[in-house]
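The passage that follows is intended for readers who have already worked through the single-chain material. We present the inputs for a multi-component assembly, then the predicted structure in tokenized form, and finally a short commentary. You are encouraged to pause after the input and sketch how you expect the pieces to fit together before reading on.
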Amino acid sequence: MKPKIVVVEDDQPILDLMDILLKKLGYDPVLIPNGLDALTYVRIEPPALILLDIMMSPLSGWEFLDRLRTEYNQREIPVILFTASPVGAERMAELHDPKLGILQKPVTFDELKTTLQQFLA
Amino acid sequence: MERQITLREHRFSHTDIVRFTVIASFTLSSILITAIALSRNIGTLYSQLLYFPILYAAYFYPRRGIILAGLCGIVYECLVYFSLFPDMFALLSATGQAVLFICVALAVAYFTNKIRISEARYRSIFENSLMGVILFDKNSFTIQLANQQVAEMLGHTTEELGQMTFSDLFFSRDFQRQFFERVGSGEDIRNFETCFATKTKEPHWVNLSWSRIDDTVVSCAVIDINAEKLARQVAADSLTQYRQVTENSPTGMVITEHTRIQFANPAFSSFSGYEPAECTGRDLADSVLDQDRERFMTFAGRWNAATPVPDRAEFRFATKSGEIRRAVLYFTPITRNNKPAGLINIIDNTEWEEYREQVEQTKERRREMMRAVAHELRTPLQPIMGYLNLLLHDPHSFGVTDETRQILDRCTKSVDQERQIINQMLEVSVVEGEVISLDYSVFSVLGMVNAVIASGGYAIKAEIVIDIPPNLTFEADRQKLSYVINALVANGVTYSKPPKKIWITYRGSSALPFHRLAIQDNGIGITEAQLDKIFKPENDGSAGSLGHSTGEPGLSLAIGKKYVQIHGGYISVDSILNIGSTFTIHIPKKRLDQGDRHET
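Having made your guess, compare it with the prediction:
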């Protein structure tokens, strides 16, 4: 069975791209364009990994992460912040979360592949 | 005192001899005359003569006077017995006379003693008092008597004072006039402060109280207040001096004892909003904003140390109208009236702080905007890059021909370049606005340079000549220095003329505190005007079209410069037009400590 990856991203062109790329890399992508729906989904069907955009509304990536980790107590699911914002790395370092990674947009095919392999190993 | 006693004893013994001689001769002659008078029967001179020595002796020596009276009585009795016996009446009268001698002597001795005691009492007060006492004539103001205290106070002798008038004592006519006015009122005066002149014509402050002893004599008590008055005057003078010095100062200045204001200049008055008169006596701590008061008290607590040292700190103050102002306090310990005090300069930096905050806010807004812009620019790049990668990753399954592949390759390079530009733009906003920490390590310089050349693929683009000792190491942030070298090599490659050639040479020497790494090209060179611009982030590349053709944007030099600066080093440039340029990186051999870092 292919590992399921939830992509939380409010930018439709990127969602479309990730769909193709993840499939190409041999994963089962689930595309969810807003954080609240994603939380509900993740709670019912925990995926192998979450690719998470940060700048979203109504629920930002940070809020999503916080609720996922504390409210739903899902500490084992790896989350990769998938962001174009330059402050992501700093804040990520402050969280000291071993299951948290970052991919700076725009990401190359190879970078994506390596990072996913690393977290799903 | 001892000398006086000796002197007095000497005088007394001298007069004692004189008096003894007088009394003895009087007594003997009186007895002789009485004896002759009795033998010749001259009744009128019987006994009266003997009163002279008895009165004289009793007056000066009461006890001896009585004894003398007794002796005289006995001698007289004997003489009368010898001459008039057996006249019973005469004998009785003579006995009565003898008793009378003793009674007179007793009376004289008693009263003289009384007078002497009271005189001694006044004398002791007059001579031994710590106060000066002057007796002067109410009408002529001639000094009748002045005690030692007054004499010492003014440097005269008591005799000299006796020849002066009271009005001569005053230091100036003004003081004399004030005195006459008070005396003219006819009342007894207490605590009249005035100034006397000493013998050497120096002013000497005194406090006078006088009262009339009788119709002509006035007794005046003189208290020395000179020292106190001078001290007060010095205090007043120093206050005047402070006033003169601080009057026109734009800086607020206060003099405090502990935190209580003793003096405040007009600048402080306008800073605090309180009138100068209101400032004096106020507690400086009351003006400090509540939130800062505890910190202020700690600061002020150090003023009371045994040896306080100059100190400074910044606080917020509330003015009288409630406005909040910021100021830096500079404390300097001083001594005032022999007491420790503080001179506090208060520099109002409210406007400066506001300005600084505004600048900070502007900078912060700019950074925020850059981040937002970066985010907006990166997001649409993702699909482009993603799809290009996808096509190139598996060209055959998408039916991509080799020609299309080449085109897509170029597109990928452009997108990647775009990505780098955005990253560098962000980097500039970060290096400009934030403190960058360096990740120090010791590494091989040659290894680092080789890695940069390899990753940039520069060996294909130009001939690279590296002359670096293989065992040379730097202690620096490897990643940041790699960035700098990459930027400079890329720049060199861009501007070299074919056949392109780049020299990377280590030029350190053990005598220099800096490692020097030179990157030289055989390029077009840089003009003086361009030199100023190439390291500035505002550089749009037009100054020599930096980076346009190779994908190394001009921003990289600005970032590189910053990275070298935070290591405590600098980059120098030597350039000759159409011959080439040499960029030299100077990195301190000794690692910078935190806080040593400075902007250059």
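Commentary: Chain B is about 50% helix and 20% strand. Residues 354-432 of chain B form a domain with the Helix Hairpins fold (CATH 1.10.287). How closely did your sketch match?
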